[in-house]
Write a structure and sequence with these properties.
The chain is an all-alpha fold. It is built from nine helices and no strands.
Length: 211
């Protein structure tokens, strides 16, 4: 391959990557606004201002686009906040991690509604979410297990505790930030939830059980 051919190939690859990213952004916006069921390929291509056929160069169907949207959010935004670090201030570390998680969650409230809707309609969406969630939860479990080996925390099943705390955090974020419970006046303050979840996490991991 000549230098000119190599440069042309690189340009095409960059253009293809930019088009895919543009379509992915458009898909995310449509799913955020309309939910999973009401979103259509036509709405996505209209938002992206691209030809209908261009969509199918990058995605197999609406389901595939949705899975890629959720994967990009999970990997790029949520995964950075799930590990409880080993440091001298574990409570503060938990608080920072939970705050980062809720901030990312809050930014995509419509997508979480769409995800719940999509899991009830698509086995692939459900499995995609379980796979992504499992990878994040097992990172938490590994951190807990390491802390147990070093004697920092009491004995418990690290995998079960990781799954339970993750589920509590996820559903609390959904009910509080998306559904507005338990604040009927809708004046939701994420810091209230951060403080509550931090306290529950800290007591669950570092607390003691009376004999």
């Amino acid at each position: 391959m000549t230098v000119d051919q190599s440069e042309t190939a690189n340009t095409r690859q960059n253009q293809a990557a930019a088009t895919r990213r543009h379509l992915l952004d458009a898909a995310g916006a449509v799913f955020e606004e309309r939910g999973y069921k009401a979103a259509t390929v036509g709405a996505i291509t209209d938002r992206a201002n691209t030809a209908h056929g261009t969509f199918y160069l990058y995605f197999r169907n609406k389901e595939d686009a949705f899975c890629q949207v959720i994967e990009s959010v999970i990997v790029d935004e949520l995964s950075v906040s799930v590990v409880v670090p080993h440091d001298d201030a574990p409570r503060r570390a938990m608080e920072d991690g939970i705050r980062a998680f809720l901030a990312a969650y809050h930014q995509h409230e419509g997508l979480w509604r769409a995800l719940l809707e999509g899991m009830l309609q698509s086995r692939r969406v459900e499995q995609m979410w379980l796979d992504l969630r499992r990878a994040l939860v097992m990172r938490l479990s590994g951190t807990f297990a390491a802390q147990q080996r070093s004697g920092e925390v009491r004995e418990f099943d690290p995998t079960m505790v990781a799954h339970s705390l993750a589920a509590m955090t996820e559903w609390s974020a959904f009910t509080y930030l998306v559904l507005g419970e338990p604040t009927p006046d809708q004046r939701r303050d994420p810091e209230v939830l951060v403080a509550t979840l931090t306290d529950l996490w800290y007591r669950a991991i570092y607390g003691t059980v009376d004999g």
